[in-house]
Amino acid sequence: MTLKIEFSGASDPGKVRANNEDNFLLAPELDLAIVADGMGGHNSGEVASSLGVKVTREKFESMSGTGLKPNPYDEKLCLETNQLGFAVQLANSVIYEAGNSGQDNKGMGTTLTAALFKSPRLCLAHIGDSRAYLLRNGQAKQLTEDHSLVMEHVRNGILTKAQAEISPLQNILTRALGTQKTPAVDMFETELAEGDRILMCTDGLFKAVREPEIFATLTAQPDDALACASLIASANARGGPDNITLVIGTVTKKTFKEKLKDMVKKSYA
């Protein structure tokens, strides 16, 4: 079965913050989607998240076009996942250098979660506390791991998840792009099936709207664009304390016409 994924996305500053330091990117020609949540003084968070999505896309597209095998290379993962992770590392280098080139952007950084669909596989590269979820047959699973102090405490049994959600330490990240010269970027893959949905979001969504309500909204609203709008409205209804950004994608079968187009494209490649 040949599958495809179509992403929809939306971003909103929320009700409290003057600037929107989140960014997202949809590149349907690459089957790529990215969300990023910037941090830093003045406008530097916005600069960091913008650089993160822009450089990741450009570097991945460049490597994808040439078939470049990055070094280092994780043999347990496919070429595209390695390329995506390497592109994120290159984005880190750009942000790190920009953050150290002058006082205006000093200390800036960003979370970044990138998802690439290589049928039937979803390739992910992730750093920070933005999230990617898989929804399948009414069940939801968080694919990414939060790189935050409170979630480290949860994993070590120091806090419960409920305690972490109200902890004053919940905004402290242990990893982000631009804050270190060579931070570890998580790379992993999961196989998708027809009807699966992917949700990627910044913490402005899941810290305002509880997970059960998020998943209930997705179940009730099959249209991805409308689901994005509904979830942003829910976060704002709860005070919109942070910028809210999300991307939702649904896996479907390719039509006969789309399969034919792929065959023609391959024959000319």
What does this protein look like?
The two termini are 22 Å apart. Helix content is 36%, strand content 26%. The strands form 2 sheets. Strands 2, 3, 4, 5, 6 and 9 form a 6-stranded antiparallel sheet that branches. The chain is of the alpha+beta class and 269 residues long. It is globular. It has helices at residues 44-66, 79-99, 149-155, 161-165, 203-206, 211-220, 224-237, 256-268; strands spanning 3-12, 22-27, 32-39, 109-110, 112-118, 121-127, 131-136, 139-142, 186-191, 197-201, 244-253. Helix 1 (44-66) packs antiparallel against helix 2. It has one domain: PPM-type phosphatase domain (Phosphatase 2c, domain 1, 4-Layer Sandwich), CATH 3.60.40.
Kindly state the number of beta strands. 11
Spans of at least 5 consecutive residues whose pLDDT stays below 50 are none
Residues in helices, as a percent range: 25-40%
CATH architecture: 4-Layer Sandwich
How far apart, in Å, are the first and last alpha carbons? 22 Å
Mean pLDDT: 94
- Helix/sheet category: alpha+beta
